[in-house]
UniProtKB/TrEMBL annotation:
Name of protein: Acetyltransferase
InterPro entries membership: Acetyltransferase_Butenolide, Acyl_CoA_acyltransferase, GNAT_dom
The entry's keywords: Transferase
Keyword Transferase: yes
Domain N-acetyltransferase, chain residue ranges per copy: 18-161
One GO molecular-function entry: acyltransferase activity, transferring groups other than amino-acyl groups
GTP-binding among keywords: no
Pfam families, A to Z: Acetyltransf_1 (PF00583)
Amino acid sequence: MRNTLPMRSRTSPISQPITIRRAAARDAKRLTRLVRGSGAYEGKYAAAVAGYRVGPDYIEAHRAFVAVDADEHGGRVIGFYSLVLAPPELDLLFVADEAQGRGVGRLLVAHMQSEARAAGLERVKVVSHLPAEDFYHRVGAVRTGTALANPPAVPWDRPKFEFRIPSE
């Protein structure tokens, strides 16, 4: 399944389509850079992604999809998500800092919901990073609780959400 959405850049009035496609092993280094370079993980949150790696094995094992921004160089990955089917969980969702505020995250969530529906899932949980909590509220996730800190990897509590996937 491919979704395309014309997007406007914050700095350019020219619309550029965003395409979502299945992630491939060749995307692993780009996805790792998106995770490690995320502005949401600066300062006290940096330790959570330091050394984090999205490897080809991870991409093969899960339903990982990338958002590609069309440009004169053939497109670049500006976001991605990973849907785990059992138990149903949105494991990763990242949008490049420079692409935030353009609807890329919303597009990725809509695509994830479509994939979840096609897989017969009724609910998908997500443990949110604290700075992403408002985003999950805005895209329709329902707060279900709190994931307690798990030091040393994650020394802070995190909000737990759930997407309810209605059948069509």
